[in-house]
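Much of what follows relies on a compact textual record of a protein's fold. A complete example follows; check for yourself that the lines match position by position.
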Amino acid sequence: MSSDNPPSTSPTRLHGASNFRDLGGYATQGGERVKRGRVFRSDHLAGLTPGDLLQLRQWGVTHSLDFRGVAECAATPYAIDGVQRVALTIEPSVIAKMQALVAQGIEPSTEDTVELMCGTYRDFVNHNAATFGRFFRHLLDEPTPQVFHCTAGKDRTGFAAALLLSALGVDRATIEHDYLLTNLRYKRDPNIEGKGPAHVMQVLWGVQPAFLHAALATVDQQHGGMQNYLHGPIGLNTQDIAALRAMLLDRA
């Protein structure tokens, strides 16, 4: 991680969302810095307190970009006055795969579970690019403070954050630093996690460098690098990238 970057993002906190944080504050390789108070990442928003809701209003958040699947949204629904929820649905396939194995009497090892998670991240790259493209399009079309999230704010949200920071010119070591902050911030909730072997759940509800590396390696090896991926499957042109940077970067 560049020495120009802070050890963590803004100390922004919400009481009812453990993995909520400002994506701003990071330095780019071009000598700029991601603006604070413009884009936030989080776990689900169904447990926000009245104070949290007031804080979102004070920050001027107008949209929540929700990567959760249909059943997840039904299990932890939310409605926030003044905040429009935008569905960017990516179903959590790794959970279904794991439950299917357990139902067959197969208990995956830790290594098996890690590989399943890596496969999920490869799928983000190759099967969910259109949805992540809609994520970028919404950021460009609605230049107001926004929050994006999934259930735990770690995988779909983590990859979206990696894409956004990459588009803004942040280096990969810093992107990985932001990604791994989830292990310090997210508070596991057994009501959401469901049941499963402890070693399996430990992998599923945390993040590991290997997960993100699997996605980035797929971007590099199958798509010719991040810039090609952003301009190709994600659907951003040169003007889009320039507009995004003009909107979300300050001189450092």
Residues 166 and 172 are 7 Å apart (CA to CA).
